[in-house]
From TrEMBL:
Residues 4-84 form the GST N-terminal domain. Transmembrane segments: none annotated. It comes from the Bacteria. This is Glutathione S-transferase. It comes from Sedimenticola selenatireducens. One of its GO terms (molecular function) is maleylacetoacetate isomerase activity.
Amino acid sequence: MTELTLVIGNQNYSSWSLRPWLFLAHHAIPFKTKKVSLFTDSMERDLAVHFSDNKVPILIDEDLEVWDSLAILEYLVERFPETRGWPEERSARAVARSVCAEMHSGFFGMRGELPMNCRRRFPGFEPGPEAQRDIDRVLGLWRFCRERYGASGPWLFGEFSAADCMYAPVVMRLLSYEIPLDTVSTVYARTLFESPAMQQWVKAGAGEAEVIDEDEADWPSVPF
């Protein structure tokens, strides 16, 4: 079997890159990474050879390229069915896809005000009304999934799934900006953050030297 290649952006900032990377790393699927420095003079040149409209991530499997985080996750679940990347039970699987789609298409207030940052914390951060509405919705989704479908394990749907990958950047955001969490959400966030694959990503992101000014929150910060 040919080894996969995942084209990603800066690990400190690229929330979309984190999602399929986490799935591959969590399941110990062999893959190589090709890192592109976002918003640099070399980015367009590095991505011009791909058909992704200058966006990351991109999964390369022999002569096939798949782009967009959610599409890559869907492909990986099909490619590696032993990962059981979606819940087995039909209703749980439908809800998992719903929460992934909601993450994929929404929460712009939270994304804009709380850009992902693996190396900084923002004590005392106060989200605006739109971001707070998004945060409240996310925490409500987590509680709903854990309480209704999470009996078999510590993840959103019990067992690790694509849904956990889609919400991994949100975990990073909420912890970095020290957002107050309810008990259920705290336990879930710590489970994901402390997982070996997530820690590997965070360590890599924290070790990067590049700074993307537009992805740095306008709030006093300290090292994570």
